Amino acid sequence: MSSEGEAEYFCKDFEWEDLRAEVEANPSFAYHFESASSSSLQPPESDVEAWKQFHLRHASGKFFKERRYLLKEFPELLSCPPNSKLLEVGCGNGSTALPILRANKDLIVYACDCSDETLERAKEIISGASATTFRHRFSTFCCDLSTNGFPNWLACNPCRGQFLRNCLSDVREDNGLHFTNPCPSEEFDCCVGGVDFVTLIFTLSAVPLERMPKSVKECFFVLKPGGMVFFRDYGLYDMTMLRFEPDKQVGFREYMRADGTRSYFFCLDTVRNLFLGAGFTELELDYCCVKSVNRQKGKCMQRVWVHGKFQKPALSSTLKSIQEKQTGEFVT
Ligand SMILES: C[S@@+](CC[C@H](N)C(=O)[O-])C[C@H]1O[C@@H](n2cnc3c(N)ncnc32)[C@H](O)[C@@H]1O
């Protein structure tokens, strides 16, 4: 069992199925399995507006905790070729971006959020950590991934089309770490040429369920073939879900905090359907179940997160799946 601060590694302190049985047998949790009752909450103008207000209220930067465990969960971030590109989506104050920048001195990090306020804070925190080393490898932009998607300078339409046609000649499929750009040189006039990795760390749960498919597709479009999404988010029956009262429920497994920000709690099938539906293949997907102790209150808490790793197919795997469909057989 770990203390609250360090309790985030990919591990199994308990079986998720045991927790599920316990929760589903407890009548006091019954409202969590029903569709939303009539919520007394006045929805804010929009979920994005609620996040902007959230960041204005938390401008002191306290909403920042470096997520160092990510390097253990996603070691590809350390072993990728120099100048690989990462897009951190919904970066907040940079809790995910900073440990990655520290750990890999050759990675270029683009970070976006729907709030200008938090992007300013992320820049301050990151340049405060190392102004010289990070300046040329870290840039931010404001966007709402669930409605407008990512800007064209990240991956322009011709490049996106090229990615989709999977026009790659020498992508190796071993671990997805060897990419070839569709253009012959690393220099792109049109855009930065897409990214090798996308991190979605506690961001998708903040987006309303009906806009999640578009959000995941956007990530697919800007990834180079063979590129990967690293996903971590709230899991079904996490302690924080069970603490939501009935009037905070705004949809099935979807809750709204008093400040108007939302949180969805994922089961593995929902995550799988979202990513496979966008065209990804699944590399890893599991619950991370951690018992953590709040030393101050002396309470043991059962935390559940979903850990996922998904890959955008490259030419050879796409051809393989087309051949499989045509012949109705598995090609080995
Ligand atoms: C819980 S925070 C996660 C921050 C960060 N990824 C981390 O690891 O700590 C969720 C972030 O997603 C951002 N966000 C919410 N909806 C968004 C949207 N539609 N487009 C872009 N960012 C969004 C919020 O402003 C917030 O900073």
TrEMBL record:
<dbReference type="InterPro" id="IPR029063">
    <property type="entry name" value="SAM-dependent_MTases_sf"/>
</dbReference>
<comment type="function">
    <text>S-adenosyl-L-methionine-dependent methyltransferase.</text>
</comment>
<keyword id="KW-0489">Methyltransferase</keyword>
<dbReference type="GO" id="GO:0008757">
    <property type="term" value="F:S-adenosylmethionine-dependent methyltransferase activity"/>
</dbReference>
<dbReference type="GO" id="GO:0032259">
    <property type="term" value="P:methylation"/>
</dbReference>
<dbReference type="Pfam" id="PF13489">
    <property type="entry name" value="Methyltransf_23"/>
</dbReference>
<protein>
    <recommendedName>
        <fullName>tRNA N(3)-methylcytidine methyltransferase</fullName>
        <ecNumber>2.1.1.-</ecNumber>
    </recommendedName>
</protein>
<comment type="similarity">
    <text>Belongs to the methyltransferase superfamily. METL family.</text>
</comment>
<dbReference type="InterPro" id="IPR026113">
    <property type="entry name" value="METTL2/6/8-like"/>
</dbReference>
<dbReference type="GO" id="GO:0008173">
    <property type="term" value="F:RNA methyltransferase activity"/>
</dbReference>
<keyword id="KW-0808">Transferase</keyword>
